Amino acid sequence: MDKYEYRLKLDQMKHLVAEKDYKAAAEIAKSVAWKKVKAPTDLYMAGKVYDHTKQYEESRELLLMAFDRSPRRGRNILFRLTQVAIKLQDIEDAESYYKEFLEIAPHDNLKYVLKYHIAKAKGAGLPEQITILEDFMEREYTEEWIFELAYLYHKAGDGVRCVETCDELVLWFGEGKYVEK
Fold this sequence. Notes:
By secondary structure, the chain is an all-alpha fold. It has helices spanning 3-18, 22-29, 40-52, 56-69, 75-87, 91-104, 110-121, 126-139, 143-155, 159-173, 177-180.
């Protein structure tokens, strides 16, 4: 495949990703010789496409290539690598990627999201999961994770804290899919 054909396929993939048509983008991605691609952003995008189409092994392979070719060893790549490893139930690798993420971005609040997903995948109890999300909520108040915390309170049998958290969710955000839930 020459550079023109590669650019054409890449542009098609970018357009499909923008439209969230990951299935069609994955079909195009299959026809690209990714080992020859040097641009980490292109490899990351293809890894993301494969992640969205549940082709986790292919996703991990491309994300690892992107990480190796990235001069800054991007935290976004490590974040997605950790998530893909969790989906593959490879907790050992997930924890390794998570540690690298912490080295690169120790103050990034997404570390709590990764820590929560790893704890959940390892079968951690509800109190541990709740503590992780409470720590996260002290630093960043987002609709999705407030809802998740309320759900954990509910699962733990703490109806009072569940209702209080849901009330805060409605108060802070007013509307949206999590408010409606």
